[in-house]
Structures are given as C-alpha cells and as structure tokens.
Write a structure and sequence with these properties.
InterPro entries: PP2C, PP2C_BS, PPM-type-like_dom_sf, PPM-type_phosphatase-like_dom
Cofactor: Mn(2+); Mg(2+)
CATH superfamily of the largest domain: PPM-type phosphatase domain
Largest sheet: 7 strands, antiparallel
Number of domains: 3
Number of helices: 14
Bound molecules: 2-acetamido-2-deoxy-beta-D-glucopyranose
Structural class: alpha+beta
GO molecular function: metal ion binding; protein serine/threonine phosphatase activity
Strand content: 15-25%
Keywords: Hydrolase, Magnesium, Manganese, Metal-binding, Protein phosphatase
Helix content: 25-40%
Enzyme class: hydrolase
C-alpha cells in the first residue's frame, strides 16, 4: 500500500516535471521566434550594407564642381546594381582623390564610416606552441608595434605610426620560416626606397608604393630560397603579414594562415586560405597545368602558394602553379574595428573565424590584454584537439576593451520600426 502510493506520487511528480519541461521548451521557442521576427523587421527598415560592400571616394566630377566646389562624392557600392552616392565635405582628410576599399558593417550608417577620424592605438601579443606530440616548431612569427623605434627614426620617417606583424608557417623543416623571420625587416623595409624617403602624408600614391614594395619582398624572399645553400629545396613556408600605417591596414597572404578582423564582434576574413578547397586557387593551378592528388598539389603540398619549396616549383618546366605572390587587401580602420587575429592553420583547423573572434572578444572584455588573449586562443586550439603547431598573434586597435554587442540593435531602430514593434507587442 505504502509503496504503491509512494510510486504513484513519484509518477505524478514525473508527469508534472515533463509537462513543465515541455512548457519551458515552448516558451523558449516562442521567444526565439519573436526575436527572429523582430530582427528581420528591424533590418528591413534600414539599409543593410553587405559585408563586401565597397566605399569608393572619387574626386569631384566636373558637374559636381559646378554645383559646389567643396564637395566630392563618396560612392557606396553594394553590388553592381545597387550603388548610393553621397557628397562628402572636401576637407575630410585622406579621402581626397583616393579610391579606397573598405568593408562596412551591417546596418552601419555611411557617414559614420566615411568621416571618422579614428587613429588606432596599437598593442599586440603572441603565442606559439608546438603541441605535445610534435618535436620541432616550424612556425615563426614577428610582432613590431612601433617600426620607427625598431628601425631607428633617422632611417624610417613615416608621418604616422607604423606597426608590422607576420606569421610564417614552415614545412619540411624550419629553414624557410626562419629565413623570412630573421630577414623580415631587411626584406620588407630596409631595401626599398619607399621607406627611406620622407613623406608628408599617407596618400594613395604612398599606399600603392607600399603594396608594390610588399609584393617585391615576397618575391625576393622566394628567390633567395632558390639557392639551396640558404634553404633546402624541400623546405618552404607560408607567409601572412599585416602592416598598420596610421589607420590603414594592409594584409598580405600567401598560404593557409589567416587574418581575421573583429568588427564589433563580427568576424571579417581579411585573407583566404590558399588551398585546393578554394575554388579560385584550384582553377588557377589547373589553368597553369598543375594538378592535385587529393588535397595536395602534385601530391606534395597542401598549400597552393608558398615561399621556397623549390623542389616542387622546379617540377613544372614553364610557370609554376605554386607561387609566392601574395594576395593583398587594404582597408581603412574605423572605431568598429576592435582587433585582428592572425593564426596559422593549426588554429583554423579546429575553429571558425567567428568562433575565434567571439572567444577572443570575451577574453579581451575580461582582461584587455592581447598577450593573454593570444595565449588563451592558442590553448583553446589545443583543447579542441588541433594536431598541428599553433601560432596566434592578436593586435588590438583600441586601448579600451570591446563594448557590449547589444547596443547595435538599439542603434538601428528607426521610429517607424519602433511603432511597428509596438503594434506587434500589443496585438
Ligand atoms: C544587388 O543587391 C540587391 C539588394 O540586396 C539585390 O536585390 C540584387 O538582386 C543584387 N544584384 C546582384 C546582381 O547581385
Ligand atoms: C638572412 O639572409 C641572409 C642573406 O640572404 C642569409 O645569409 C641568412 O642566412 C638569412 N638568415 C637566416 C636566419 O636564414
Ligand atoms: C613540432 C611540430 O609540430 N612540427 C610540425 C609543425 O607543422 C608542420 C606543418 O604542418 C609539420 O610538418 C611539423 O611536423
């Protein structure tokens, strides 16, 4: 008797419990659906600029000049068919006669991006670990927060602060990655006239020259490695570099390291992994007569761009499909751009760009220390069981920790949207 009553009360409790669980699920689902609907409604009230949108700033055309001498036109291109033109005051620095490309965050007003006077305050940290099971470290990296004091201000005379970072993931030994790390300042800065001359402003011409000089540095490093006495033919390295000139960021990449920008919490890839899985690279290789065995070019290498690896480059009698030319991306940093993560493939094998950005942002909000942040990211990669060596560089562009993300949505609500929301809540 007692037992049966006890068991029936247990059954009742169990039933009640499951009902409560179902109810909870239902409530959660309703709330989620509401949030989704509210979000899509709010977004439809605003111009949403795709992450790939470009801002082109052109000098005033003649008809505009007639209208008003002191205006030029900024053009926001979303894609071929959608294009908005807005006048920008002429005294906006850096925009004159420059064609600049930068990404715009979703739901950002255009003015905010165009007229900003943001100058980043740079700090950085790095972490490198070969992992437990591996014997040698083949990655190398370089972090120079202030190039002028590093190279000597009498030599290096840029009108704005310049910082330089690199991640070099070696394979077939560490000779190639060591070569480029040890010789980086010579290759990238000391030998090219553009960095020795004094400049009064950072303009489009100078930025183009810097880009040219970077391409040259990649080529020179690659050619130097052709000499077997410097770097063995079976050895090579990928190279990812980032140069911050005032508020200009230039990322160059050859290989499968990756640079990811955190824009108010959103991950923006600034480089592409040059591997067989990247359609454009696969096509490029095959057009030059190269082939893949599985994921490996000529069955030898997992990357389609690298410095060194001359034993592979010599396999083709004409132009080698394995190249050292970097892909280069230039942009203007704004207040929205919080930090940059540069990592070797050991990181990206086990986490997505967005995962890394969200993870790093949480850490930076807690302690604001890029060194600690890089270490935490590296350890997270090992926790997620990466089987490769891990190198992470974190570069912060502001001295204050990232702000809360919630503000974004509130920021976007137009009066109309608010009214709609209210009706929806009441009805
Ligand atoms: C460009 O974007 C608009 C709005 O997002 C879209 O309606 C249009 O189809 C797009 N056009 C192309 C060519 O992608
Ligand atoms: C740096 O470059 C010089 C000249 O090419 C070379 O002799 C030297 O070995 C390089 N350093 C390293 C660490 O490879
Ligand atoms: C010690 C170590 O982990 N070395 C590895 C680093 O990564 C390269 C490229 O994947 C491997 O070949 C090394 O064995």
């Amino acid at each position: 008797m007692r037992t049966s009553r006890a068991s029936s009360s247990v059954t009742e409790k169990w039933l009640l419990f499951t009902q409560l669980c179902l109810l909870k699920d239902l409530v959660i689902r309703c709330v989620r659906q509401f949030i989704r609907r509210a979000k899509s409604m709010l977004l439809s009230q605003n111009v949403v600029v795709e992450p790939t949108a470009e801002i082109n700033v052109k000098s005033s055309s003649s008809s505009q000049q007639d209208l008003n001498n002191s205006f030029q036109i900024a053009q926001v291109r979303i894609n071929d068919s959608v294009c908005i033109e807005i006048p920008v005051p002429e005294d906006t620095p850096l925009l004159r006669s420059v064609k600049k490309t930068c990404s715009v965050a979703a739901a950002t007003t255009v003015e905010e991006t165009v007229t900003t006077e943001f100058v980043p305050k740079i700090s950085s940290g790095s972490y490198a670990d070969k992992g437990e099971s591996r014997e040698y470290m083949e990655d190398e990296h370089i972090c120079i927060d202030d190039l002028s004091s590093h190279l000597g201000s009498s030599f290096f005379r840029f009108p704005v602060p310049v910082a330089f970072y690199g991640v070099f993931d070696g394979h077939g030994g560490s000779q190639a990655s060591r070569y480029i790390k040890e010789n980086a300042t010579r290759l990238f800065f000391e030998e090219d006239a553009v960095f020795r001359e004094s400049h009064s402003t950072v303009n489009a011409f100078l930025l183009r020259e810097v880009e040219r000089s970077h391409r040259r540095a990649y080529r020179l490093a690659d050619l130097a490695m052709e000499d077997e006495s410097v770097v063995s033919g079976s050895c090579g390295t990928t190279a990812l570099t980032a140069l911050v000139i005032g508020r200009h960021l230039m990322v160059a990449n050859a290989g499968d390291c990756r640079a990811v920008l955190c824009r108010r919490g959103r991950a923006v890839d600034l480089s592409f992994d040059h591997k067989s899985t990247l359609d454009a690279e696969r096509r490029r290789v095959e057009e030059l007569g190269g082939y893949f065995e599985g994921e490996y070019i000529y069955g030898e290498l997992a990357v389609t761009r690298a410095l060194g690896d001359w034993s592979v480059k010599r396999l083709s009698s004409s132009l080698s499909p394995l190249i050292s030319d970097p892909e280069i991306k230039q942009m203007v940093l704004t207040e929205e751009d919080e930090f940059l993560i540069m990592g070797c493939d050991g990181v990206w094998d086990v986490m997505t760009s967005q995962y890394a950005v969200t993870f790093a942002r949480q850490g930076l909000r807690r302690h604001g220390d890029p060194r600690r942040c890089a270490m935490e990211l590296g350890r997270e990669a090992f926790r997620l069981d990466t089987s490769d060596n891990v190198t992470v560089v974190v570069i912060c562009f502001t001295s204050s920790p990232p702000a809360s993300q919630r503000r974004r949505i509130q920021f976007c609500v137009s009066d109309e949207a608010r009214a709609k929301l209210q009706t929806m809540l009441q009805g």
